[in-house]
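User: Structure please.
Assistant: Input sequence and predicted structure:
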Amino acid sequence: MSALTQEKAIIAFGELGRKLINPTDILGNTLYSAESANAWFTQENIKKSILSFAEMLNQTDLALWFQSVKLSTSPKKVGLILAGNIPLVGLHDVLCVLATGNIALIKLSSSDDKLIKTVLAELITIEPAFADKIEYVERLKDFDAVIATGSNNSSRYFDYYFSKVPNIIRKNRNSVAVLDGSESFEDIQNLGNDIFDYFGLGCRNVSKIYLPKGYDIANFYEGIESFQPIINHFKYQNNYDYNKSIYLVNAAKHFDNGFLLLKEDESFTSPLAVLFYEEYNDLQEVKDKLADKSESIQCIITKAPVHLTTFSFGQSQHPKLWDYADNVNTVDFLNSLN
């Protein structure tokens, strides 16, 4: 088997991106088995995630991204503890390890233990030199570095257990949107994707919005009306019904359109089927709050001039190769292992 080169990696990633444009061709029966094992992984959401990676792995962006990638001359074993909240969420970390020529020791999430294997098997078919760079493990051992994604609780365990090796430990994060009242109907409709894609289970999903004082909630609800069918998913509906009953029993002020509850709350982490909101008087106060809480925020969705790194409406689940989780440059971390 010939050695992996950066040129081979770029070509292989690009070819994988082209093949992912037709998710059914790549996944086949895995589409059904993944949904059977995890009801949140609907075929629609799996395909949406696959197409997001197809979009990410385009030749132009790959050429630009690989300018910052150094191929390791002394490959390190990098343990990857992957999350399973949305389909294929850990694939980007795997690709970063492979792009840098290191060895990925992959601890799959029990919630997503089929899709990544299928996609990586396709990558190995395209470029066999990746075969000895991928190893699936039940327990991490003999590793040189670790990238672990989990909850705030599990991060404390990760911090302790992996403290003696270079590491990236990810905790809970949420995404927010800032409206200023000038948004079009289409803007709000696109914001619906940021809220409802993958049922709102991802850290890039908007769980909190900031609204100017006096904002008409009806404008927001009208804009997201096309997402009403989400209530037909039994697990989502169970969450909606549960949270609605809690608010009603406690006489908590909230808004309700039949599939999404709006509740005023300073927290970023809203329950499923609930969107928290806060009102503001001027944008500077929002900007100050977001800057102060930056370590809890994954994405900011807005067209308002908040002078922070932001995404356009509808784009939170369409990251580029260089849109790293928690704003920690994974490639720079992996390059530093040399």
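DSSP finds 13 helices and eleven strands in the chain.
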